[in-house]
Protein backbone atom coordinates (compact mmCIF):
# COMPACT_ATOMS: atom_id res chain seq x y z
CA UNK A 1 0.00 0.00 0.00
CA UNK A 2 1.25 3.47 -0.91
CA UNK A 3 0.95 6.07 1.85
CA UNK A 4 2.40 9.32 0.46
CA UNK A 5 -0.43 11.72 1.32
CA UNK A 6 -2.25 11.43 -2.03
CA UNK A 7 -5.31 9.21 -2.00
CA UNK A 8 -5.58 6.28 -4.38
CA UNK A 9 -8.29 7.79 -6.58
CA UNK A 10 -6.30 11.01 -7.09
CA UNK A 11 -3.15 8.99 -7.84
CA UNK A 12 -5.05 6.97 -10.47
CA UNK A 13 -6.42 10.11 -12.13
CA UNK A 14 -3.05 11.86 -12.05
CA UNK A 15 -1.26 8.85 -13.53
CA UNK A 16 -3.89 8.53 -16.25
CA UNK A 17 -3.12 12.14 -17.19
CA UNK A 18 0.62 11.54 -16.97
CA UNK A 19 0.28 8.48 -19.20
CA UNK A 20 -1.46 10.76 -21.72
CA UNK A 21 1.51 13.14 -21.56
CA UNK A 22 3.85 10.15 -21.86
CA UNK A 23 2.02 8.90 -24.97
CA UNK A 24 2.08 12.36 -26.52
CA UNK A 25 5.74 12.91 -25.66
CA UNK A 26 6.85 9.55 -27.04
CA UNK A 27 4.80 10.05 -30.19
CA UNK A 28 6.35 13.48 -30.71
CA UNK A 29 9.78 11.97 -30.04
CA UNK A 30 9.24 9.42 -32.84
CA UNK A 31 7.96 12.05 -35.24
CA UNK A 32 10.82 14.43 -34.47
CA UNK A 33 13.39 11.66 -34.89
CA UNK A 34 11.85 10.72 -38.25
CA UNK A 35 12.02 14.34 -39.38
CA UNK A 36 15.66 14.50 -38.24
CA UNK A 37 16.45 11.58 -40.53
CA UNK A 38 14.38 12.76 -43.47
CA UNK A 39 14.66 16.55 -43.65
CA UNK A 40 16.05 17.93 -46.91
CA UNK A 41 16.56 21.30 -48.52
CA UNK A 42 18.55 24.47 -47.94
CA UNK A 43 17.94 24.41 -44.16
CA UNK A 44 19.05 20.77 -43.84
CA UNK A 45 21.99 21.28 -41.48
CA UNK A 46 20.24 23.65 -39.07
CA UNK A 47 17.00 21.64 -39.00
CA UNK A 48 18.84 18.32 -38.72
CA UNK A 49 20.60 19.68 -35.62
CA UNK A 50 17.47 21.32 -34.20
CA UNK A 51 15.43 18.15 -34.57
CA UNK A 52 18.21 16.15 -32.87
CA UNK A 53 18.20 18.55 -29.91
CA UNK A 54 14.43 18.25 -29.68
CA UNK A 55 14.20 14.46 -29.87
CA UNK A 56 17.07 14.10 -27.38
CA UNK A 57 15.23 16.35 -24.93
CA UNK A 58 12.02 14.35 -25.44
CA UNK A 59 13.87 11.07 -24.81
CA UNK A 60 14.94 12.37 -21.41
CA UNK A 61 11.43 13.68 -20.73
CA UNK A 62 9.66 10.37 -21.35
CA UNK A 63 11.89 8.73 -18.75
CA UNK A 64 11.08 11.40 -16.15
CA UNK A 65 7.36 11.18 -16.85
CA UNK A 66 7.35 7.37 -16.66
CA UNK A 67 9.31 7.42 -13.41
CA UNK A 68 6.78 9.84 -11.87
CA UNK A 69 3.96 7.50 -12.90
CA UNK A 70 5.76 4.63 -11.20
CA UNK A 71 6.42 6.69 -8.06
CA UNK A 72 2.66 7.23 -7.82
CA UNK A 73 2.10 3.48 -7.94
CA UNK A 74 0.82 2.96 -11.47
CA UNK A 75 2.21 1.24 -14.53
CA UNK A 76 3.81 3.48 -17.13
CA UNK A 77 2.59 2.67 -20.62
CA UNK A 78 5.32 1.33 -22.85
CA UNK A 79 4.01 0.15 -26.20
CA UNK A 80 3.40 1.76 -29.56
CA UNK A 81 -0.20 0.54 -29.57
CA UNK A 82 -0.89 2.02 -26.13
CA UNK A 83 0.63 5.34 -27.18
CA UNK A 84 -1.24 5.35 -30.49
CA UNK A 85 -4.54 4.75 -28.70
CA UNK A 86 -4.02 7.79 -26.45
CA UNK A 87 -2.07 10.40 -28.35
CA UNK A 88 -3.50 13.31 -30.26
CA UNK A 89 -0.27 13.65 -32.25
CA UNK A 90 -0.50 12.42 -35.82
CA UNK A 91 2.18 10.05 -37.09
CA UNK A 92 4.66 11.06 -39.77
CA UNK A 93 3.23 9.83 -43.04
CA UNK A 94 6.16 10.60 -45.29
CA UNK A 95 6.37 14.39 -45.00
CA UNK A 96 9.38 15.71 -46.93
CA UNK A 97 8.78 19.48 -46.95
CA UNK A 98 10.81 21.20 -44.21
CA UNK A 99 8.15 23.85 -43.48
CA UNK A 100 5.49 21.18 -43.19
CA UNK A 101 7.75 19.32 -40.74
CA UNK A 102 8.13 22.47 -38.65
CA UNK A 103 4.38 23.04 -38.71
CA UNK A 104 3.65 19.45 -37.68
CA UNK A 105 6.13 19.63 -34.80
CA UNK A 106 4.61 22.92 -33.66
CA UNK A 107 1.15 21.31 -33.60
CA UNK A 108 2.59 18.43 -31.55
CA UNK A 109 4.20 20.76 -29.05
CA UNK A 110 0.89 22.59 -28.63
CA UNK A 111 -1.01 19.32 -28.08
CA UNK A 112 1.35 18.47 -25.23
CA UNK A 113 1.11 21.98 -23.75
CA UNK A 114 -2.69 21.81 -23.68
CA UNK A 115 -2.73 18.31 -22.17
CA UNK A 116 -0.23 19.27 -19.49
CA UNK A 117 -2.14 22.43 -18.64
CA UNK A 118 -5.34 20.41 -18.19
CA UNK A 119 -3.68 18.37 -15.40
CA UNK A 120 -2.92 21.34 -13.13
CA UNK A 121 -6.32 21.46 -11.37
CA UNK A 122 -6.06 17.77 -10.46
CA UNK A 123 -2.47 17.83 -9.18
CA UNK A 124 -3.14 21.06 -7.27
CA UNK A 125 -6.28 19.65 -5.64
CA UNK A 126 -4.31 16.53 -4.62
CA UNK A 127 -1.40 18.62 -3.28
CA UNK A 128 0.91 16.70 -5.61
CA UNK A 129 3.72 19.21 -5.74
CA UNK A 130 6.15 16.77 -7.36
CA UNK A 131 3.87 16.19 -10.35
CA UNK A 132 3.10 19.92 -10.52
CA UNK A 133 6.84 20.66 -10.61
CA UNK A 134 7.41 18.10 -13.38
CA UNK A 135 4.50 19.52 -15.38
CA UNK A 136 5.76 23.09 -14.94
CA UNK A 137 9.20 22.11 -16.21
CA UNK A 138 7.67 20.28 -19.17
CA UNK A 139 5.38 23.16 -20.09
CA UNK A 140 8.28 25.62 -20.00
CA UNK A 141 10.30 23.41 -22.35
CA UNK A 142 7.41 22.82 -24.75
CA UNK A 143 6.43 26.50 -24.83
CA UNK A 144 10.02 27.51 -25.60
CA UNK A 145 10.25 24.89 -28.33
CA UNK A 146 6.91 26.01 -29.79
CA UNK A 147 8.15 29.61 -29.83
CA UNK A 148 11.30 28.55 -31.70
CA UNK A 149 9.29 26.57 -34.25
CA UNK A 150 6.90 29.50 -34.73
CA UNK A 151 9.88 31.79 -35.27
CA UNK A 152 11.28 29.50 -37.96
CA UNK A 153 7.87 29.48 -39.66
CA UNK A 154 7.47 33.26 -39.16
CA UNK A 155 3.93 32.82 -37.82
From TrEMBL:
<dbReference type="InterPro" id="IPR012347">
    <property type="entry name" value="Ferritin-like"/>
</dbReference>
<comment type="similarity">
    <text>Belongs to the Dps family.</text>
</comment>
<dbReference type="InterPro" id="IPR002177">
    <property type="entry name" value="DPS_DNA-bd"/>
</dbReference>
<feature type="domain" description="Ferritin/DPS">
    <location>
        <begin position="16"/>
        <end position="154"/>
    </location>
</feature>
<dbReference type="InterPro" id="IPR023188">
    <property type="entry name" value="DPS_DNA-bd_CS"/>
</dbReference>
<protein>
    <submittedName>
        <fullName>Dps family protein</fullName>
    </submittedName>
</protein>
<dbReference type="InterPro" id="IPR008331">
    <property type="entry name" value="Ferritin_DPS_dom"/>
</dbReference>
<dbReference type="GO" id="GO:0008199">
    <property type="term" value="F:ferric iron binding"/>
</dbReference>
<dbReference type="Pfam" id="PF00210">
    <property type="entry name" value="Ferritin"/>
</dbReference>
<dbReference type="InterPro" id="IPR009078">
    <property type="entry name" value="Ferritin-like_SF"/>
</dbReference>
<dbReference type="GO" id="GO:0016722">
    <property type="term" value="F:oxidoreductase activity, acting on metal ions"/>
</dbReference>
